[in-house]
Structure formats: structure tokens, C-alpha cells
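=== RUN LOG ===
request id: a7f3
mode: sequence -> structure
chains: 1
length: 407
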Amino acid sequence: MIPVSFDAKQSRPTLRKMNIAYCTNVRLPSERAHGHQIAKVTEALIGMGHNIEIFAPFRKNVISQSFESYYGMTSPVRLHHIGSTDGIAAWWAPGVLGLKLTTYLLGKNMRKILQSRPKDFDVLYTRTPELLPYVTSLGIPVIIELHRIPRIGRGRFLRLLRSCKLIVALTSPMRQELIDMGVSDVPVIVEGDGVDLHDFEALPSAKDTRTSLGVTEKTPLIVYAGQLKSMGLSKGIPELMSALELLQERGLEFRAVIAGGPDAEKEKFMASMSDDLRPLVNFTGYIAHDKIPTLLIAADILVYPAPKSNHVFYQRDTSPLKLFEYMAAGIPIVAADLPPLHDAVDSSMVTFCETGSGESLGEAIRIALDHPEDSMKKAKLARTHVEQFTWEKRMERILNAARLPSL
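=== RESULT ===
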């Protein structure tokens, strides 16, 4: 079994009720994974009895729903949209300049607001390194959850990290790099993303979902659910398409569903499909996150492809939400063998394939389908193991590790 960073069974001190300020520079609500992750972290902390206030930038938003309704949250959340200028949307501050402007204005306003409420918060939580210059001098313990390590200004970044109470690295390779950079006087723990197992309760039947997709009971259904491209990086869809082409050429009867956006990428991949493959593959586009579990449990194989790349995202930083959701679905998983994934799974739980190889991915899918008993044994192990990665257990481990006063 893969170890988690804190064994809740060994020691579970009772946490006092705390007031937590969650500070972020992302648009909320957001259709991207980081918005969902913030919502789940917030919901878990509220469920643990803590009071949460979120401080986020004012941004023009195509989503008209409230934060709570968009993410299906049952508890109200105090969300403060700070400022009145959306630097990212401003014509006079394009691209990176707009993001820097938004973060600068947000940081200044956020510091001013928090300074005016010096006794209102027990801890400040953020996953935005760019906000550290504005919040580490407030006298409030800071927990920084790192999803990346800034490439520029590392000396200053290290100094800011030393002002934090706790550093949460998303992966073991990231933690090792922080240690190699010289982080030694602040605790650094590893906590990947998590899963809400309640999302997988009381779902429509897999048979009904397959019927709605036009997939018979005996036809293998291969499913990918996630972004098709993000931050300019491939998510392995070309490799998946190559694998499906090979499986079709070799006579395997199957259907595939590829769910996710952006739409421009979906249209590009649909246009590139061969006439023989086109009837077998359904590109759904964006699917609301609360609908994804219904799709996952209807699959025979869940796939997590990846390109062959030395980019730090693949080698150090990725802890994909979809992997934890795949595990929660209890369906056999075929995954690219990326180093950070080994924080969550091993070969006893998933069937690994080579990165960047459609042939290796196709062969791994075929093996998983040809050996259903072995595949389901792995899926059951993954389903049991993912219970250690619920958002509540994750946040409990993080707060315990922070050793805040009176805990």
C-alpha cells in the first residue's frame, strides 16, 4: 500500500474551532479544476466545524451561479470579491501583465482588509505563492499549499516560505525539490488532491447511463474525463486517440467517451478522427462536475494518458483530481506511469503504461479488458485505498501538521 503523510488512526487530536481566511487569486466560481479544489477544501473545513472566509479577486465571470450553487455546497460560504478592476480582462493590460496587475491589486487590498481585522483569524490558508508577500507579515500563521514552484525569484520565494507555519507540497518530488532548495526550518508535508466519496453515492445506474450513450452491456466502454488541454500543456489526448486507432485496427469492439473541454480542442480532435474511428468515439465537451461520477461508474476502463515530457508538471507537480475520482468509482484504471502518481497508487491498483506511447496505452487497455478478474481486484484495492484521501481526512492531516496554538 502507498503510505499517506499522516496516519489518522495513530493520533487524532481534537481540533478546536478555528476562523480561517482562505486567500486566492483565481476567479470564483471557476469551471477549472482549481476552483473545484478550493470549493472542496472549503467544504471539508466547514464540515470539520471551522469558520471560513474566502478572499478572491473581482473578475468578470461567465458563470452566473453563486459559489455555493455552482459547486453544489449545502453550507453558506462568506466569499469576498475584492476590488473592482479585472486586470486580466482589461485591454490595456494583456496576458501576463494583466495577471500580475490583478494579483498586485488583490494583494494590497487583501493585506489592508486583514490588517483591519487582526484578531478575526487564527490561520491564513492559500495555494497562491504570489500572495505570500502580502500576507506573511500580518502576524497570522500561514499555511501555503503549493501546486507549483515559481521559476523566477527563488531567493525571495525561499525567504517567504520561511515565514510560513506549514508548507503543503502536492507531491513527493515537489517536497524533495523544496528540501534541495534549502527549505529546512519549516515543516514540509505531502498531500495530493482529494475526493468527495459522497459524490459517488445514490447515482443513476450504470446500465441507464450506458443506454443513454448507446452502448450495449457487452461492449467495452473506455472513458476519459478531464481537460483536453490546460495551461498550454497536452493532457495525453493524442496518445489516447492513437491507442483507440490501434485497438480499432486490431478488431476490438469498443466505445469511448472523452469528456472535457475546451471546445476548440474538442473540435480539433473530432476533425482529426478517421472515418472508421468516428462512430466509436463520443467527445462530449465540458460536463458539469457533479455529473462526472455517473459517467465514471458506467465505464469498463478509465484512462489517464500523458505525453512523454520532461515538463515539471508531469515529472513533479501533478496530483490529478481525476485519478482520485477514478479510484473512487471502483472501475479498472489504465494510467501513464508518471512519477508523482506513485504518491497515490502503485501497480497493485492500476495498470500502468508508458508515457507518450499510444501503442503502450492501447496494449494496457487490452490487457485490462482481457483479464477482468485481475483488473477488478486492482480496482477494489484502489477504491479501498482512496478512503484515505477524502478532503476531510486530508485537511485534518494538514491542520494537525501545522501544530497551531491550542490544538
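=== NOTES ===
The first helix runs from residue 33 to 47.
The mean pLDDT is 92.
=== END ===
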